[in-house]
Amino acid sequence: MRAKNMEDNNESSTTSKIGSFWDKNIKIHSDSRKISWLDSPTILYEHLKLLPVNGERMSITKWVLWFKEKYVPITLEHGLSLGSGDGTLDRHAILLNICRNMDSYDISPVSVETANKINKEQGLDDKTVCRIGDLNKIDLEKNKYDVIFSSMALHHISNLSHLFSQIAGSLKNGGFLVANEYIGPSQFQWNEKQTKIINDLLKILPGSLRVDIRSGALKDSFVGPSIEYMNENDPSEAICSDEIIGYISKYFDNVEIVEYGGNILHMLLDGIIANFDEEKEADMTILKLLSYIDSLVITEKIMPSDFAVIVARK
Questions:
Q1: Total tally of structural domains belonging to the chain
Q2: CA dihedral in degrees (298, 210, 60, 155; nearest 10)?
Q3: What CATH number does the domain containing 256 carry?
Q4: What are phi and psi of 294, to 5 degrees?
Q5: 205: which residues sit within 8 A by CB, 6+ positions away?
């Protein structure tokens, strides 16, 4: 019995640690500086214009709208958002008339409070409500939802078996799981080939494009984090990310996966993307060449994509 209590205490401690991390993270994301590869307009609106609909392509940034236009011409009744953060996706689903009502869950009390505050300010609190919930343990009402969304949340879940069982059970027949996800190596344990390409490209880039805006130092090399570092500093990050597609295939037969790479750009441009001036042709030429290399890695099947938009239908 004592051993069981120790396990429960350890699990509770980990959950609390993860919740506290995301409480802080919502404040970090209010930083307006460009840090991530996905902070680049050129990458988002040119390189990642990949979502197919009506013979055209939409940017990955519009994945929720793409889902509506391709899959749901009528307004659905009940939607759910998992790991909803400040509730932006939930409100979009309401305002785009994808769903009449949205429920959502997030592990961070600060995020939940922020989401509900904004919902009320925008007059949407009668249509969408956010609650605190740990997706590793959550119990969802059976046969309730027409669509379940997840934006970069599934890769933070260690108990994917439980969560996918809950998702499948809570969706109505014909219901959708729609996710924008990191599906690459778990705990960011990138392989030698991937890190070598990133480091080779760093050697080629001029110093003016390699200044890490967080430290002011030149980014001369990239070394992936150890598992020990990940467990200590961000225990939920990409914890079982390379298992996500397997679970989707297990629970869903009708699946569309739009891969959008990131295998090279994600860590190559981390901290240095702000150096690429959108108004300078030379900078944009280099950025487009890097983007081409990133896409080539996927199209030539050198390695599987680290990121994807996924639509799965029950």
A1: 1
A2: 70
A3: 3.40.50.150
A4: -60, -45
A5: 286
- d(CA 293, CA 296) in angstroms, rounded, equals 5
**pLDDT tens-digit profile of 154-163?**
999 999 999 9
Evaluate if pTM is beyond 0.85: yes
Alpha-carbon distance of 94 to 20, in angstroms, equals 29
Contact 148, 166 (CB under 8 A): no
Structure tokens given for 153: 């949340």
Render pLDDT for 1-50 as a digit per residue (tens, 0 to 9). Answer: 434 443 444 555 555 555 554 445 544 445 568 999 999 999 999 999 99
Which residue range forms the structural domain that includes residue 237?
2-313
